[in-house]
């Protein structure tokens, strides 16, 4: 089978049609998905931002935001003094620093905030920021508990401000390109999708470095706990918060959410109606109470956007095979696979004629009947009817060093400046976070969870 390789160009390009005869075509089927970061972004309207939560992701998000023309960092908030000191080292001694996020929200010179805190603070800070008239970029998952989500959705609508959830698959040129092919019907009807994110290192399992000066003097422990249960100061809980259910959402909320975001971006789905998961704490028995392996299976009902299909997803933090990640969309006539910075698509058309002979019951019939059935079969179907039509393999590659986080940030800041639609608003964010978090609930209850993806609510179990 021939392979057609398409390297991404920074401007829209054309290529020869790769569709099989009989497949529906779109008007722009020969265009490559445009990379947002290749578009000229206006710097005329300065957007002043503040970072709330200056940990690992906080640094990644801020550095990426500052690559967008016209974005300026004004303030940084964190509960650990060492991170405030580092913020001034890195971004300038004149930036405002504080341990109290409300001091950030009260400033008139801040237009938008990046909420990069532990999960159990996401909804509180996001809602407060929207009420204070700030645009919000909130890291995934949007909420710590599913029942917090509708309040965030309502706060966004009431505020009139931009809220983007930070699961960058929604802006990824890879998944947007995959969505184009999916909508063309190149793989037929979607039967199931699968996604995995496996890791095998201590850092991958969130055993991050703890500073030597961590103490109640350098860390605002009471503020960190917030609405979580009150426990004595513990620097491990503070710096490894993802490993504790009181502050994080474990592998499901932290990593499944990317897989749901990608799936919904490609298919246009609002989510599953049935969620079941199995989980365990197999390897990283370091005091954490969050699972280090979770496998989920979801049922997606038929909608106007897609037929009914199943979704399988997994995260394993102690993967002896070396780790890795990938997404596959398997249809009745092909497969779209997204891995790292490339897409491969294999597709075909089944023969019109059903098979006869070979591994078939034909051999078990009397000889005369075999001959009669074969003659009838050959009279009914032409040689062309008996052939499968194999399409060229399509390979799409994003540019070396491509960063979907930058595209996601550009979408956020351009929405602030121009009111263009946001790709991952509060409703999208809840529809990705909800099923991910409910995988944890399913593990704990050892039962299927029923979810209304339109209303974004759990359906109570029947008594």
Write the SSE topology:
Layout: E1 3-7, E2 47-52, H1 56-65, E3 71-77, H2 81-91, E4 96-98, H3 101-105, E5 112-115, H4 122-131, E6 135-139, H5 149-159, E7 163-166, H6 173-184, E8 190-198, H7 221-225, H8 235-239, H9 250-267, E9 274-280, E10 293-300, E11 309-316, E12 324-331, E13 334-339, E14 342-349, H10 367-380, E15 389-390, E16 393-397, H11 404-418, H12 426-445, E17 449-452, E18 457-459
Helix pairs in contact: 4-5, 5-12, 6-9, 9-12
Jot down its keywords.
Rossmann fold, alpha/beta, 463 residues, elongated, 18 strands, 2 domains, Dihydrodipicolinate Reductase, domain 2, 12-stranded mixed β-sheet
Can you tell me about this structure?
By secondary structure, the protein is of the alpha/beta class. The chain folds into 2 domains: 3-22 and 177-352 and 387-401 and 425-459, Dihydrodipicolinate Reductase, domain 2; 38-169, NAD(P)-binding Rossmann-like Domain (Rossmann fold). It has 12 helices and 18 strands. The protein has helices spanning 56-65, 81-91, 101-105, 122-131, 149-159, 173-184, 221-225, 235-239, 250-267, 367-380, 404-418, 426-445; strands at residues 3-7, 47-52, 71-77, 96-98, 112-115, 135-139, 163-166, 190-198, 274-280, 293-300, 309-316, 324-331, 334-339, 342-349, 389-390, 393-397, 449-452, 457-459. The strands form 2 sheets. Strands 1, 8, 9, 10, 11, 12, 13, 14, 15, 16, 17 and 18 form a 12-stranded mixed sheet that branches. Strands 4-3-2-5-6-7 form a 6-stranded parallel sheet, with helices on both faces. Helix 4 (122-131) packs parallel to helix 5 (149-159) and helix 9 packs across helix 12. The longest helix has 20 residues, at 426-445. The relative contact order is 0.17. Residues 5-33 have low confidence and may be disordered.
